[in-house]
């Protein structure tokens, strides 16, 4: 499968270099003498027609052959010669597969790079809760390019339903348009920082009836003002520009890192603040109050006072505890209901 401008996408993704040409649509395949790749398990292949979006570029009706793989399958890639190689994950948004660049794991360390040196092996686990992944290779000297698509077999995602305690609210959140299509799965998996940003931005759009582009324009900010070097995900940038989410420092957002309960409380409270609501809550008296960070305490008070988030039992809030997708969906529903009162 061939797509123009993909090389430009690679370079822009990691902000390493610029490209002064557009590679020809009729480029050949990258020579297999330059690399090897494998997946830990393959369940067959399927021919499909898909529409994808790469950094604002829409590619419609692409004919691809996808390798079907189980959830959490591992892709292993070895460069025999220095090779431009990225792995993209695709989330489903209104029938369109929208790309985001994923980090390689090289010598045990995750790195968002666009090139692997000769004799370097990188791996990517398909563990991000996304329906599609792509290995894209590009030869800068010749303009040759190669794509390998991988589709997660949903039949191999064990127990892909919310827990009983969450099901009613999760179903209501989905019915209310509060959970993007691409996030309607992997309910018990920890939600990533990027996916929580997507959830928040979707809530902004549903609540206002406006696109995030229109909201940003009204606030005189631009998606071009990306403060992060490790992500180009539109919703992450937008949520940061709106003052809802922050980075981890040194220009990093850590899009695929997990979030804690106290971080979720802060993001939820910041969302309400954007809409101009009073975010004052009653002082909470959890048994583990001393474990709640000072920067998170007002937000924990707010979300608990108004029933957006509850404790975890034994009068604890568990501020550093993990936060799953189903927990995120229930709290987004409660937040939406609170703002509608």
Which characteristics define this entry?
disordered N terminus, alpha+beta, 341 residues, 8 helices, single chain, 27% helix
Structure description:
The chain has eight helices and twelve strands. With 341 residues, the protein is an alpha+beta fold.
Strand content: 15-25%
**Taking strands numbered 1, 2, ... along the chain, how are they ordered across the largest sheet?**
2-3-12-11-5-6
Estimated structural class: alpha+beta
Number of strands: 12
Give unreliable regions as ranges: 1-26
Oligomeric grouping of the chains: single chain
Helix share bin: 25-40%
Q: Give the rounded overall mean pLDDT.
A: 88
Q: Specify the biggest β-sheet.
A: 6 strands, mixed, barrel
The coarse silhouette is elongated
Q: Which H/E pattern describes the elements?
A: HEEEEEEEEEEEEHHHHHHH
Count of DSSP H/I helices: 8
Kindly, what is the distance between the CA atoms of the first and last residues, rounded to a whole number of angstroms? Answer: 50 Å
- Over the alpha carbons, how many angstroms does the gyration radius reach? 21 Å
């Amino acid at each position: 499968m061939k797509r123009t401008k993909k090389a430009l996408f690679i370079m822009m993704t990691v902000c390493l270099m610029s490209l002064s040409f557009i590679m020809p649509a009729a480029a050949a395949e990258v020579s297999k003498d330059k690399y090897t790749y494998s997946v830990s398990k393959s369940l067959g292949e399927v021919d499909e027609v898909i529409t994808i979006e790469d950094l604002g570029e829409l590619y419609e009706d692409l004919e691809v052959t996808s390798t079907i793989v189980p959830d959490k399958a591992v892709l292993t890639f070895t460069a025999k010669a220095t090779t431009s190689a990225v792995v993209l994950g695709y989330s489903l948004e209104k029938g369109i597969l929208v790309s985001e660049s994923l980090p390689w794991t090289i010598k045990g360390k995750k790195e968002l790079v666009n090139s692997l040196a000769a004799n370097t092996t990188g791996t990517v686990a398909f563990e991000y809760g996304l329906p599609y992944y792509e290995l894209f290779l590009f030869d800068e000297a010749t303009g040759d390019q190669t794509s390998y698509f991988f589709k997660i077999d949903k039949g191999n995602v064990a127990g892909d339903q919310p827990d009983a305690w969450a099901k009613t609210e999760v179903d209501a959140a989905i019915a209310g348009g509060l959970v993007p299509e691409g996030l309607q799965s992997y309910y018990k998996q920890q939600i990533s920082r990027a996916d929580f940003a997507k959830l928040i931005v979707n809530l902004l759009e549903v609540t206002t009836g406006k696109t995030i582009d229109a909201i940003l324009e009204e606030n005189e900010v631009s998606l071009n003002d990306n403060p992060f070097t490790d992500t180009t995900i539109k919703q992450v940038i937008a949520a940061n520009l709106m003052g809802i989410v922050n980075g981890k420092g040194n220009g990093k957002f850590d899009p695929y890192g997990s979030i804690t309960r106290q971080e979720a409380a802060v993001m939820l409270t910041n969302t309400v603040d954007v809409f101009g609501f009073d975010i004052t809550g009653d002082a909470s008296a959890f048994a583990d109050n001393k474990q709640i960070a000072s920067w998170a305490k007002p937000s924990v008070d707010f979300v608990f006072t108004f029933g957006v988030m509850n404790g975890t039992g034994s009068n604890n809030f568990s501020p550093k505890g993990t936060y799953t997708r189903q927990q995120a969906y229930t709290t987004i529903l409660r937040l939406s209901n609170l703002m509608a009162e």
